[in-house]
């Protein structure tokens, strides 16, 4: 909880938007904060539950790692996969510069 | 032209016997699409040419005496979040607009092998996030029964396609009710199978521990038939249950004599009075058919909504990280890669998707993980334990599918919480991983259809289809 009593602040929303790589402007931060605060206000209901000793449940049934036989199998066509990419070069995905553009 | 039957099983029988050609069945459905699709907008894409080629190939097989599958010549619509090789798959999102997958989803492969003819890709709430199909980037779908109202969601296009007669059957996906709720609102049958019964390979992931593919149909028997075809183990999905597809069509007419049906005494409120009245009528019909109604308690059910709206967005925030402008879909160019990510995702995702990504990112972030996501996982366990306890004394449980009949456009579009409350009765089964189906059972407010939901324990599809069949038989006289 933030000091204002709201379950999420504008600063929180701006932070998670950055973490999630979503560029949103100040007006959107205000709008989303209002909506998310309303949704998260509802989440307080589970605070009434005694959850001590309850095991978390991440999946409907226990999962084990699944391994297949180590044999050659057909895979996706590289040409077809690359044809969907926004930019390619030398049969690879091309992206803008990763380092060296700041400061 | 001969009369075209309305069900998939009759169409398949007529095509296999040569009484009808797959092509004439297809043309009749394409004509209906031509007539009403401009009003309904069930489809993001109608694949008429590919469908004609597929129908002609089936007719050639039959003419040559080659064996055909159990769905020979049956037109089917596929929700546009399932991959179709070389055919645009958008998830109703601008971020995937124009993307042509390099492979087919397993369900698509199985349907094609069974002889089904895909007529198109249906509209949905973007990335299956919503309960009205208003969150589509490509326009809303209208309810064929009243075009001023929503078809439900997120599989609204697939529900509307069946309700409008565009195809006798369709596929949807159900993460928190996205098959059952639109089925209820459009007056058709909708099934969410047990988690892991139907392969998710090629289903664009929303919340991987909850997502499951299932059918829409006009009859319970057709829904059973499609489930049989798409179910069964798939090595391409590591959560696929390693067992053969169950036999289900026979269960539909088995009756419910001796079955124990659970009535939830502490069901969370909020259902319209007409919906509650239909639920009472459903219990009465099953009792008259020889079932015993047993009171059960699900004390944690009221907390399912909170657990779901933390767990599903948390998983979504991770799954949707793959849409980054690098390998497929939209890219908004920027000075560096990091800026490209932010600009691409801002331009490509709609508001509801952004809300859920932010909600999920927050629930998983340092300092909040235990307070939100961690707690939600424990509540999920409590809900599953409640069901386990209840199923010690009953075979299936009945509850409404949706608290409301189809609502008007815009009523809830900008109020996320009121939209989320539409899922209150459908979410618990996804959290538990159980099967559930919605059966049209009379009408409620404004003469609109009401869906009754049949819930069963994991892999309890046979019991579920028995009860579904009995409700369908009773619904004829129960209007």
TrEMBL record, chain A:
<dbReference type="InterPro" id="IPR036113">
    <property type="entry name" value="Asp/Glu-ADT_sf_sub_c"/>
</dbReference>
<protein>
    <submittedName>
        <fullName>Unannotated protein</fullName>
    </submittedName>
</protein>
<dbReference type="GO" id="GO:0006450">
    <property type="term" value="P:regulation of translational fidelity"/>
</dbReference>
<dbReference type="Pfam" id="PF02686">
    <property type="entry name" value="GatC"/>
</dbReference>
<dbReference type="GO" id="GO:0070681">
    <property type="term" value="P:glutaminyl-tRNAGln biosynthesis via transamidation"/>
</dbReference>
<dbReference type="InterPro" id="IPR003837">
    <property type="entry name" value="GatC"/>
</dbReference>
TrEMBL record, chain B:
<dbReference type="GO" id="GO:0005524">
    <property type="term" value="F:ATP binding"/>
</dbReference>
<dbReference type="InterPro" id="IPR020556">
    <property type="entry name" value="Amidase_CS"/>
</dbReference>
<feature type="domain" description="Amidase">
    <location>
        <begin position="24"/>
        <end position="462"/>
    </location>
</feature>
<dbReference type="InterPro" id="IPR004412">
    <property type="entry name" value="GatA"/>
</dbReference>
<dbReference type="InterPro" id="IPR000120">
    <property type="entry name" value="Amidase"/>
</dbReference>
<keyword id="KW-0436">Ligase</keyword>
<keyword id="KW-0648">Protein biosynthesis</keyword>
<keyword id="KW-0067">ATP-binding</keyword>
<dbReference type="InterPro" id="IPR036928">
    <property type="entry name" value="AS_sf"/>
</dbReference>
<dbReference type="InterPro" id="IPR023631">
    <property type="entry name" value="Amidase_dom"/>
</dbReference>
<protein>
    <recommendedName>
        <fullName>glutaminyl-tRNA synthase (glutamine-hydrolyzing)</fullName>
        <ecNumber>6.3.5.7</ecNumber>
    </recommendedName>
</protein>
<keyword id="KW-0547">Nucleotide-binding</keyword>
<dbReference type="Pfam" id="PF01425">
    <property type="entry name" value="Amidase"/>
</dbReference>
<dbReference type="GO" id="GO:0050567">
    <property type="term" value="F:glutaminyl-tRNA synthase (glutamine-hydrolyzing) activity"/>
</dbReference>
<dbReference type="GO" id="GO:0030956">
    <property type="term" value="C:glutamyl-tRNA(Gln) amidotransferase complex"/>
</dbReference>
<comment type="similarity">
    <text>Belongs to the amidase family. GatA subfamily.</text>
</comment>
<dbReference type="GO" id="GO:0006412">
    <property type="term" value="P:translation"/>
</dbReference>
<dbReference type="GO" id="GO:0005739">
    <property type="term" value="C:mitochondrion"/>
</dbReference>
